[in-house]
Design a protein that fits this description.
By secondary structure, the protein is an alpha+beta fold. It is 47% helix and 22% strand. Strands 3, 6, 8, 9, 10, 12, 14 and 15 form an eight-stranded antiparallel sheet that branches. The chain has a three-stranded antiparallel sheet with strand order 7-13-11, with no helix packed on it. It is rod-shaped. It binds zinc ion. Zinc ion binds next to loops.
């Protein structure tokens, strides 16, 4: 290739000769330079974009991961709450069922017991002297009631409506039991004279004995057989000094021939509370406690109820 230079002023034409080889080389170099620059720029921009994208993606992934973790934590928490709630609900339901059944059982037993003693046993007791009939069924009933109470006690929860209801029922069951005349009213377990027909030591003829004559020396303590209200405390003919306690549910107890009375009419006494002293007042030949249990005003054998 030749480049011809022709000046306007004087002078000859100058020719610069460039060899064909060089021309190709220069052209190629120029192209390569441009290409290299373009490529570098492109590469740089791609790298930059990539870096931006990588950072962005990393941020997104981080966000997603933390969201995922939060979600997992939430799900775990909810699952645990569900499990806990399910457990509590199951426990509460079973407790409710247990206590309701216990109360129903108790109610039924109690009603049956009262009906049985009023309808059947009392009539028999009133006419037949104490004999082969074992005074155990009432005590067995009481034992069952105690078992029911311990069942209700075992079904306690720390706090909620069910608990307070159970506590109320338990208190009621305990109150019923406390009121029943089951406590032996003197320290001695010796009985001089049982319930039923007997030859009376003073009247000298066969007579119904409405209670038990329990051994004791003058001044020995006499205890309330059950919780209740003192409805009489004073002198009453043949009984001498006598205390009568009303236990509710038709039950009354009598403590006769006392040397001393420690309670007043209208006073509430608890089971096993000391209420007086053994004596020999009224129609009595020696110091002892005459103890009666009356159910709906009818004398019944105290051995049905009191526990030695
Ligand atoms: Zn007596």
């Amino acid at each position: 290739m030749s480049i011809m230079y022709i000046p306007h002023h004087k002078g000859g034409v100058k020719t610069i000769r460039i060899s064909h080889y060089r021309t190709i080389l220069l052209t190629a170099f120029a192209f390569m330079l441009v290409a290299l620059l373009a490529l570098t720029g492109y590469t740089l921009s791609v790298v930059r974009q990539n870096n931006d994208m990588i950072v962005k993606h990393a941020e997104e992934i981080n966000d997603i991961m933390s969201e995922k973790e939060q979600l997992q934590a939430l799900i775990a928490k909810q699952a645990k709450e569900l499990a806990d709630n399910a457990e509590i609900i199951t426990t509460m339901q079973s407790i409710k069922t247990i206590s309701e059944e216990a109360i129903d059982d108790y109610k039924e037993q109690y009603e049956n017991m009262i009906v049985a003693y009023i309808d059947k046993d009392v009539k028999n007791i009133g006419t037949i002297s104490r004999g082969d009939k074992k005074p155990s069924s009432f005590k067995e009933d009481v034992a069952e009631l105690r078992a029911l109470i311990s069942l209700v006690e075992s079904a306690k929860l720390s706090e909620d409506d069910v608990t307070s209801k159970i506590a109320q029922k338990e208190a009621r069951l305990n109150n019923y039991l406390d009121a029943l005349p089951t406590y032996w009213p003197v320290n001695s377990r010796t009985i001089f004279s049982g319930f039923g027909m007997r030859f009376h030591p003073i009247y000298k003829r066969y007579r119904m004995h409405d209670g038990l004559d329990m051994a004791g020396s003058t001044g020995d303590p006499v205890y309330a057989s059950g919780e209740g209200k003192v409805i009489f405390a004073g002198w009453n003919g043949g009984f001498g000094n006598v205390i009568i306690i009303d236990h509710g549910n038709g039950f009354k107890t009598y403590y006769a021939h006392l040397s001393k009375i420690l309670v007043k009419e209208g006073q509430w006494v608890s089971k096993a509370q000391k209420i007086g002293h053994v004596g020999s007042t009224g129609l009595s030949t020696s110091s002892h406690l005459h103890f009666e249990v009356r159910l709906n005003e009818k004398p019944t054998d105290p051995l049905y109820y009191i526990e030695p």
